[in-house]
């Protein structure tokens, strides 16, 4: 790597956020060293030494830029030449209205792009503690599985206790072990998404009796024991274990991952299923399917026993069983400034899930903007933040102070957040009429409002790119 430490950006952690950050820095013409501790030191959730390894779902969620906030974030990242989105688009698998990827192909594409870039050096080995003092421009993107020495150093430096929650992993089933005389292919409401055909999920129906027995088994099943220091760690509601949802009430799962709406069983079209379990394709070959929403802390033996009571999965063979890992994140509004720099030591900038965003795309997007900020710093410039009307800007706003403080003294209210339209500023003018002049009614108003927010976001992002990044916005 050529250049002095003063103009080299060091990125610690090569997950989605770190990989995206390194790409953006190098693309801006600034040399970068990307540090990854695997395989020298593995984590509880990772299985390979590949960069940007997906350890939970293989879904990037909705790709609908006009009506869904995460789909809008996809579109914004594509306009900014995101490596993560480029690799996802090139390795997508059918998933209804969602963008899902072949996880091995996706990681390989990211690894190859970073390894081949002339301004990127990939350094394998753990950064145990704070980085050396002569590293003047650092992005810490170590994720929810940050190693203890670095996490402890950050806590000591910030004098803030990091919060933590558990993120759960759903099991993966071999496709050829699913009984398709019972199950069937169909996307909810036959919706067609990127790489799909409207019949992208495998559906397993349940009667009321089967559902009640399944819920009872989940609640009674033997769970993984928590360590003493983990017992008070809260879950993130976007990734609750299936048995925790079951404990919240007998109908909770029917209104969550097992809702039966928008689906018709071709084996028995006149009988309405009481609940439905869905499986989504997990690799490009179509040989593996993950059970949607079935993150779990059940012990392995219990998982196999209970999940094989699902109609169609009686003989299921599991390529991977579910599990849990501990996630940590900063109290970012307190310890980070508006450009994601640590107030106590501004040479350190943070990115990804550790900042308090949740989700693959959100983590990568924060890595993207952190990379742009770091590259500008290396050039002696200051980059204006993206508009708060954009998905990227609204998520950044949440992380750096967009939440409401709790009124209870001593209570820390900041929590991880997926991108959603609730983070966006209100529209100056709310649509009331259709293009033909007729009045919007009912749900049409909500749809029109989301579409107007999305259109505003993309227009504002294009202006920001033209004004501050001096690159052409991609279509």
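-> sequence recovered:
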């Amino acid at each position: 790597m050529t250049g002095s430490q003063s103009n080299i950006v060091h990125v610690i952690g090569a997950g989605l956020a770190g990989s995206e950050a390194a790409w953006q820095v190098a693309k801006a013409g600034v040399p970068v060293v990307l540090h990854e501790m695997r395989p020298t030191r593995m984590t509880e959730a990772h299985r390979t030494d590949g960069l940007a390894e997906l350890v939970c779902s293989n879904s990037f969620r909705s790709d609908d830029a006009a009506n869904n906030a995460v789909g809008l974030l996809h579109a914004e990242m594509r306009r900014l030449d995101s490596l993560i989105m480029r690799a996802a688009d090139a390795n997508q698998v059918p998933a209804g209205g969602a963008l899902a990827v072949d996880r091995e192909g996706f990681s390989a594409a990211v690894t190859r792009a970073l390894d081949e870039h002339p301004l990127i050096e990939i350094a394998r080995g753990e950064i145990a503690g704070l980085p050396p003092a002569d590293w003047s421009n650092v992005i810490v993107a170590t994720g929810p599985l940050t190693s203890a020495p670095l996490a402890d150093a950050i806590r000591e430096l910030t004098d803030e206790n990091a919060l933590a929650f558990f993120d759960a992993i759903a099991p993966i089933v071999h496709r050829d072990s699913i009984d398709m005389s019972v199950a069937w292919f169909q996307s909810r409401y036959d919706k067609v998404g990127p790489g799909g055909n409207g019949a992208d999920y495998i559906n397993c129906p349940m009667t009321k009796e089967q559902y009640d027995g399944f819920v009872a088994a989940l609640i009674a099943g033997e769970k993984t024991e928590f360590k003493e220091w983990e017992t008070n760690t809260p879950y993130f509601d976007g990734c609750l274990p299936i048995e925790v949802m079951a404990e919240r009430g007998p109908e909770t799962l029917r209104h969550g991952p097992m809702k039966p709406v928008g689906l018709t069983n071709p084996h028995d079209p006149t009988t309405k299923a009481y609940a439905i379990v869905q499986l989504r394709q997990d690799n490009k070959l179509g040989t593996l399917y993950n059970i949607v929403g079935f993150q779990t802390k059940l012990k392995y033996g219990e998982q196999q026993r209970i999940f094989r009571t699902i109609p169609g999965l009686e003989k299921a063979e599991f390529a991977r069983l579910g599990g849990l890992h501990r996630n940590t994140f900063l109290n970012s509004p307190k310890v980070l400034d508006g450009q994601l720099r640590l107030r106590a030591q501004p040479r350190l900038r943070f990115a990804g899930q550790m900042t308090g965003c949740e989700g693959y795309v959100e983590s990568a997007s924060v890595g993207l903007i952190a990379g742009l900020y770091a590259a500008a710093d290396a050039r002696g410039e200051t980059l204006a933040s993206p508009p708060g009307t954009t998905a990227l800007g609204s998520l950044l706003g949440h992380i750096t102070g967009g939440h409401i403080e709790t009124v209870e003294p001593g209570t820390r209210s900041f929590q991880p957040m997926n991108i959603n339209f609730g983070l966006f500023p209100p529209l100056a003018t709310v649509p009331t009429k259709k293009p033909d002049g007729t009045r919007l009614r009912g749900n049409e108003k909500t749809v029109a409002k989301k579409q107007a927010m999305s259109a505003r976001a993309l227009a504002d992002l294009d202006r920001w790119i033209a004004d501050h990044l001096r690159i052409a916005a991609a279509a």
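The first helix runs from residue 16 to 27.
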